[in-house]
Amino acid sequence: MSFCTTKDHKKQVIDCVDHQAAQFTALALTIHANPELSFEEVKSSAMLIAPLRAAGFEIEEQIGGLPTAFRATFDSGKPGPTIALLAEYDALESLGHACGHNLIGTASVAAALALKAGFPAITGKLEVIGTPAEEEGGGKIILAEKGFFDQVDAVMMFHPRDKTMVTRGGLACVDATFKFFGKAAHAASAPQNGISALDAVINTFVGLNALRQLFTDDVRVHGIITDGGSAMNIIPAYAEAKFLMRANTVGGLTVVKNKVFAVAQGAADMSGARLEIEEGLTYAERNNNLTLAGYFQQNLETLGVAVFPPPLNGGIGSSDIGNVSQITAAIHPYLRIGDVLPHTPEFAEAAGSAAGLDTMLLAAKALAMTAVDLCQNPDMLHAVREEFLSWQSQNNPCE
């Protein structure tokens, strides 16, 4: 009987990714060419499920009540960790895959297929969880609230970027829609009979600009007017604006949100309009598991990829992976695909480029190699879990 070392198993999963590289590349390009918005990713989720089903994974569709969410599970039948690889696949309005989710989803599927085919010594359970609506709607938040990560020992995914970093923070954020209801009137002949909902929107922006000097450096508030009326000579009876608020932590975000809501209410009171607020789900700040990130970095470097430290300040967005990282050990490393920044036409182009596809394959290999580490070395898994449990006890003392 031959004995395979961890190094041997890693070589095998690398070879599996290389052997199916053309299939994975085609999958990522097809998703890229067919962008679908949040909660509408019918084709994309089906394309990611298909190779997993063909490989013998147990498929659960529409999990958590979300039509485009899924969980694909391979149970080894042997005691061991439950490792989840997360797939994202929603696109951006008018920009397509300008955040590279076609690469993210495909990399996780590729890693899972390589592990099943090339790592016969795998223990525990391997899951690919399809998480829709990262951009707008928070699919991971909904799945987290419904317990889909409660029994998972480690969660991994990758994100394309302009720089390779295994750790990077993520701000807590929440969106809100402000709906102002006024009273229509002819703007020339009887303006005194009107209540301008648009004035309430404008004064909300003015009030927030005055408030900015009182925000701490981590706070970001940005918004757009989505409805400002229908005719120039009619005082708008209805107007609407959408805002996104961010802060370092959920606690800090609550303070910011209350101030922003108070400004909007004050603007409504000044104009005489009535205000309704529709609040979205709260994206939590990210808790990077540094131990797990370190293992991922070692595997990247084995593949010849240089890793750089994250910037000390600025440049931080938000993602619903933050909510998952409050529940279990999680990493969200970034890999460079070019000198491009997310949410731009240039990034969308890079997400379908040869450089982007090559990076996706490297990410798949590193994800699979890190899963091998966790399955083969109980001490490594223990260290990951110990870090998370220590963080949890400090941040959630009542649990």
Mean pLDDT, rounded to whole units? 96
Major sheet: size, sense and barrel closure?
A: 6 strands, mixed
Shape: elongated
| Oligomeric category | single chain
Computed CA radius of gyration, to the nearest angstrom: 23 Å
> What separation lies between the terminal Cα atoms?
47 Å
Helical percentage = 40-55%
**Got a strand count?**
14
Structural class of the helices, strands and pairings?
A: alpha/beta
- List the secondary-structure elements in sequence, H or E: HHHEEEHEHEEEEHEEEHEHHEEHHH
Give the spatial strand order of the biggest sheet: 1-2-4-3-5-13
β content, as a range? 15-25%
Number of helices, where a helix is a run of at least 4 consecutive DSSP H or I residues = 12
- Which residues sit in consecutive blocks of at least 5 with pLDDT less than 50? none
Keywords: Hydrolase
InterPro entries: Amidohydrolase (IPR017439), Bact_exopeptidase_dim_dom (IPR036264), Peptidase_M20 (IPR002933), Peptidase_M20/M20A_hydrolases (IPR052030), Peptidase_M20_dimer (IPR011650), Xaa-Arg_dipeptidase (IPR017144)
Family: Belongs to the peptidase M20A family.
Protein name: Peptidase M20 domain-containing protein 2
Description:
The strands form 4 sheets. The protein has a 6-stranded mixed sheet. The chain has a 4-stranded antiparallel sheet with strand order 9-11-7-12, with helices on one face. A two-stranded parallel ribbon has the order 6-14. The longest helix is centred in the C-terminal third of the chain and has 23 residues, at 354-376. It contains 12 helices and 14 strands. 50% of the residues are buried. With 399 residues, it is an alpha/beta fold. Helices cover 42% and strands 18% of the residues. Helix 2 (21-33) packs antiparallel against helix 4.
